[in-house]
Write a sequence for this structure.
């Protein structure tokens, strides 16, 4: 959730894992292939269905491709009493299992994670309200305005433990045979990319979450013989919820040599709480 009332964006920890005006918590699926088997979205508490929509396509749309007023896509709203309301957005078309007026129990499946509405990656947008005001479940209803310490989280203890803060963390990476687009990479379009020895290019890409100014990124692409085919090094200049980077090499001969190609990236943060994260992916060309 965006805790900054102005044009800036700050998450509950005063970091950059949000964007201006965001009103909920996004729980993302990094591997789009998992959507096929269905990932249930569960009711946070007992309540009554006060809104439900299904039938919107799972296409992952930018702002220009989503009808105004339907940014949530396929979704469900529940009323829990005492002024509490929860909302669940971007559900998979055909997955919504409840209807308006129906009573539901805690943890009852409402639908499945999808790509409907205003979203560029598969996730569920979970929104919590009290008496019409948006509440951040990481801080609770009694927290003072803004970000930082204070307040009492509303997550159950085991759920809170399963949702660690994402500071400087790789969560998606892969290869493409062309210049990759961030939106398509986030939506899983390159998960099954066809790359072979005749491909015109070999590109390694990655997504890095929770970026802060001064973070250092180093990456390289190595061939089957261990030689470095491409590399990059960068100092990131601004805070970002997600940074997308890619680099690679065009084919210069008749075919790429057969074997295993490896892409590796590392990110480092210096200071009082130093961090170092890395990711490695491999692709075999036959």
């Amino acid at each position: 959730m965006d805790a900054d009332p102005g044009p800036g964006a700050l998450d509950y920890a005063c970091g950059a894992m949000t964007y201006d005006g965001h009103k909920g918590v996004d729980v993302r699926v990094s591997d789009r292939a998992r959507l096929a088997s269905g990932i249930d979205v569960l009711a946070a508490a007992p309540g009554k269905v006060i809104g439900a929509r299904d039938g919107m396509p799972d296409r992952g749309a930018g702002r220009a491709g989503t009808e105004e007023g339907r940014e949530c896509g396929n979704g469900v709203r529940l009323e829990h009493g005492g002024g509490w309301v929860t909302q669940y957005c971007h559900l998979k078309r055909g997955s919504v299992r409840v209807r308006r007026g129906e009573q539901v129990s805690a943890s009852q499946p409402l639908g499945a994670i999808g790509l409907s509405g205003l979203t560029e990656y598969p996730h569920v947008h979970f929104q919590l309200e009290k008496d019409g005001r948006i509440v951040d479940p990481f801080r609770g209803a009694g927290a003072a305005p803004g970000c930082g310490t204070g307040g009492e989280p509303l997550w159950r203890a085991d759920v809170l433990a399963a949702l660690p803060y994402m500071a400087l963390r790789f969560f998606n990476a892969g290869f493409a045979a062309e210049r990759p687009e961030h939106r398509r990479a986030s939506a899983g379009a390159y998960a099954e990319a066809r790359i072979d020895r005749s491909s015109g290019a070999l590109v390694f890409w990655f997504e890095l979450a929770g970026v802060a100014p001064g973070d250092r990124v180093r990456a390289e692409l190595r061939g089957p013989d261990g030689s470095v085919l491409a590399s990059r090094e960068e100092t990131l200049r601004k805070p970002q919820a997600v940074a997308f980077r890619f680099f690679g090499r065009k084919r210069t001969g008749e075919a790429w040599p057969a074997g295993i190609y490896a892409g590796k990236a590392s990110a480092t943060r210096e200071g009082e709480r130093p961090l170092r994260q890395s990711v490695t992916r491999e692709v075999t060309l036959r």
About this structure: The longest strand covers residues 201-211. Helices lie at 157-161, 182-186. The chain has a mean pLDDT of 91. The chain has two domains: 25-135, 169-285.
